[in-house]
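2024-03-11 09:14:02 INFO worker-7 job=invfold-0412 stage=load source=structure_tokens
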């Protein structure tokens, strides 16, 4: 077993919420296949495909993602790529070894009142001036297994904007939030 998690690293599952065309899952599949091959798996491509999960509201994006992966030899099981809402619906699995992607950048004020109310009831980092990408970060963090990795493309606005303070506290719970924020600022400079 991997340190900090119950599965060997070669078997960790990857989730992409709001996955769009599947480019992030395709990149992850190559890494998963290499790990499965190194671990001596009989069919590394099948092992990689079985470890991929995604959810998107757009059925066309789901179809494109499945086609892109299939064209590269990754036959992802039917239930692993689903049409649904990654923020308000169920996630494809309870725990993931990694969550990757580029969440949508949509200001909460642009959403219907009913949607904002549902998000506010579900997410502890919700603020009236936050952005959907912050809620994706919270959802992703909540679904990581011990030792899991979170790799999302984010705006640097969450580093200093007051409405993202709860998200920063969540990400650095149990540690020194100012040290974590300094580290993130340093990373943001090296984009």
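2024-03-11 09:14:09 INFO worker-7 stage=emit residues=191
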């Amino acid at each position: 077993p991997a340190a900090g998690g119950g599965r060997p690293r070669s078997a960790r599952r990857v989730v992409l919420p709001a996955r769009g065309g599947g480019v992030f899952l395709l990149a992850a599949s190559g890494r998963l296949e290499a790990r499965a091959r190194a671990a001596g798996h009989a069919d590394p491509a099948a092992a990689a495909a079985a470890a991929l999960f995604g959810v998107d509201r757009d059925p066309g994006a789901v179809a494109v993602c499945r086609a892109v992966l299939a064209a590269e030899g990754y036959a992802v099981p039917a239930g692993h790529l689903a049409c649904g809402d990654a923020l308000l619906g169920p996630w494809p699995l309870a725990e993931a070894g990694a969550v990757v992607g580029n969440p949508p950048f949509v200001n909460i004020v642009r959403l219907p009142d009913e949607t904002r109310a549902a998000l506010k009831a579900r997410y502890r980092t919700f603020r009236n001036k936050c952005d959907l990408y912050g809620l994706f970060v919270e959802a992703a963090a909540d679904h990581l297994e011990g030792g899991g990795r979170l790799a999302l493309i984010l705006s640097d606005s969450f580093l200093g904007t007051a409405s993202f303070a709860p998200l920063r506290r969540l990400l650095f719970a149990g540690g020194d939030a100012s040290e974590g924020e300094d580290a993130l600022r340093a990373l943001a400079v090296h984009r």
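2024-03-11 09:14:09 INFO worker-7 stage=report msg="Residues 1-10, 186-191 have pLDDT under 50 and may be disordered."
2024-03-11 09:14:10 INFO worker-7 job finished
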